[in-house]
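From the pipeline queue, job 12 of 40. The input is one protein chain; the requested action is below.

Action: predict structure.
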Amino acid sequence: MSLRRRAFVLASAGLTACAPLPIQGPDADPKLIPAPDLAELAPPAPREFRAAWVATVANIDWPSRKGLSSAEQQAEVLTLLDKAAALKLNAIILQVRSSADALYASELEPWSEYLSGSQGQAPEPFYDPLQFWVSEAHSRGIELHAWFNPFRARQSGAKSAAAPLHLSRSRPDWVKTYGDQQWIDPGEPGAAAHTLAVINDVLQRYDIDAVHIDDYFYPYPVLDANSKQELDFPDEPAWRRYARAGGSLDRAQWRRSNVDNLVQDIYQLLRRTKPWVRFGISPFGLPKPALRPLGIAGFSQFDKLYADVERWLSEGWLDYLAPQLYWPIAQKAQAFGVLLDAWHGQNPQERHIWPGLFTSKITDKADSWPVQEILQQIALLRQQRPGSGHAHFSMVALLQNRRGLADALAAGPYAEAALVPATPWLADADSAASALPELRVKRVGEQQLQVLLGADQRHAVWLLYDERWSLRLTGESLTVAAPGLSAVVVSALSRKGQEGPRLGWRLQ
């Protein structure tokens, strides 16, 4: 908008560049004057996926330790979400099933031991952690993506005895010991159906924004202690049944087909059940060897984890891919920028690609990454793929502000808020794309105002302080600084990220 046009719109809305309208009286609520021209004056909303994984396994991120009271667990949730909101993150990827267990009330799998210390023990006094996370995230305008480990049954650091509901006891024929962990055999059709039922249960009962699975398909190879050779995954019974039934695939192809089937089934489940809920996958960061750019080398998830990620992209069986690009920019064999372009080059359906950043490599140890590494990776992402996004592994590094990382993000790349990129190929849950937002403003003390919006909806809110617009994301309400605030513009956000009509008001 030209300076002349900007001055005209300011004047027509009853605003001046240097003198915000007075808010009357120390105790009175401000008066709202409709100002349609403000909707044009507020700038376009920037788009960028800004997420952090919250790992519950081994108490990596939350809860900070086993055995916290319900009140202490909830207090930690609020601290994490307040930090995420302060940093202007717009999504949390919460691990709700780490090892055939549940961080929510489930009749299919037992409560996770990472809550109480004992698998199968519900929080006391009772609350539902996932419901609490969803509600509190949405109230801050933050998406909640439910993260499932599809095949891990017991993590190496687990301490408590398996509960009766755990698959290792209820269906021991599905669970295999491999190294120091237990795994659900992907070749067992009943086991794959159970994992799908677990995801469907969460999908039906919780208002999540996405289903997310990580890089654990078939397990990473384990070496024999004596020979140092890789141990094969012990899926002989399922493989023999397949072969006896006339299956024509070799064993590696069969294993990949087992994983392919689950990925496709999850995507189809979402589309027919809640078509606005996205499906995201965060695989290991290197493409299959046959499709790697010159100079890229390393572990092959295609050959070892039996994950044909490129096929999933080609078929469009997901809505976003978050490849774990957990290497520094200068590491040539796993060059960050080269890998980013490589994944985009395998994306004919134009799904979102939001890479994972190894933010937890910033520590207080001598081998820590410098903070600048993460800042430069975000800058490179914006340069190569503007308007896309990224996810941090994991939230604890941001919460602890390691080496000033959170401060550097807040002052630099996250200085302004951003909306999650829209996913236009999905169906909407509601009519938010055409809904007109509601607005009330109440005074909260001398220095703050509470902006009250429509219930059960997320909103983008532009606040005009003097000549500067500030974008905020929120749910039903937002507390803002009162001094200098002269105007508010609001739009409702649809479940697939599209912005509805804007309405503007000036304050008097």
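Job complete. The longest helix spans residues 251-273.
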